[in-house]
Amino acid sequence: MSARRPSAILIAGPTASGKSALAINLARRLGGTVVNADSMQVYRDLRVLSARPDAAEEAAAPHLLFGHVDGAVNYSVGRWLADAAATLAKLRGQGSLPIFTGGTGMYFKGLLRGLSDIPPVPEEVRARVRAGAQGLEPAALHARLMACDPPTAALLRPSDPQRILRALEVFEATGRGLSSFQGARTPGLLDPADCLCLFLAPERAALYARIDARFDLMMAAGALEEVRALAARGLDPALPVMRAHGVPGLVACLRGEASLAAAIQKGKTDTRHYSKRQFTFIRHQLPEFTWAAPQEAEQAVDAMLDF
């Protein structure tokens, strides 16, 4: 990597760690574009509840891949990488520095390492599997996967219906377990040696306080109304947008199945649990990332750029 101009800057970190503010500051200083690497901020249905940059933040620096996907779409890491490849080509042509920022570890892993070379699942197969899964609890889906593909089922949490459905789709389409494809990989889009990779690592107690405070701010900004509009669409509850932190609890509240206080607490708790997994993923899957406290992040970037 050159001392002053990497091919891209990658800013990962748990939710509510200050990634967006850092990315915007760097984009303004370095002539860059902020590119979304968060799997929920892609959805136009969830501006508030996904904490997408607001209009003022988007006006402060160019932003791409935010809110460009409809909630009815089963968006995946593979589809995001295709969008990211087109975005990289565009920004290179413009001479703008790509600054990828978000909390989805698999997006960053795909950027740097590529994906397992899994054959595409035909749309009719995907539709058939999902129709057969309608109304089933995640544990029942996991049991179904365990019956046909035990090695993959053993790797997945029984509470993760999206990945379980993906594994069922691959098995239905290919007759092979998803885990059997893990060896062969497509190449990554970026060379880690030519990128600046930073992980924001707040102190846990402070992070949890920020998560709780931000959820309260999102509620005040209209999160319940946003979820009301989303629920009115009648989408498949297994879709990623319907599993976003805060959505299941607030949907239950709107149906009269839970109090608003319980829904808010569930959203906060789920987000805190997710933040723990974000730390674990980066620690074990992406050793290329340098860890820094949020308040020291910009100085860390300057040191890595030799400013």
How many strands in all? 6
Overall mean confidence score, pLDDT:
93
Cα(first) to Cα(last) distance is 14 Å
Secondary-structure arrangement, i.e. CATH architecture of the largest domain: 3-Layer(aba) Sandwich
Kindly identify the CATH topology of the largest domain: Rossmann fold
CATH class assignment of the largest domain? Alpha Beta
Percentage beta strand: 5-15%
Q: What are the low-pLDDT stretches, counting only 5+ consecutive residues below 50? A: none
**Helical amount among residues, as a percent range?**
40-55%
- H/E series: EHEHEHEHHHHHEHHHHEH
- Determine the number of helices (DSSP H or I, runs of at least 4 residues): 13
Total domain modules = 2
Q: Tell me the radius of gyration.
A: 20 Å
Shape: globular
For the biggest sheet, the summary is: 6 strands, parallel
CATH superfamily of the largest domain: P-loop containing nucleotide triphosphate hydrolases
The neighbouring-strand order within the major sheet is 3-2-4-1-5-6
Estimated structural class:
alpha/beta
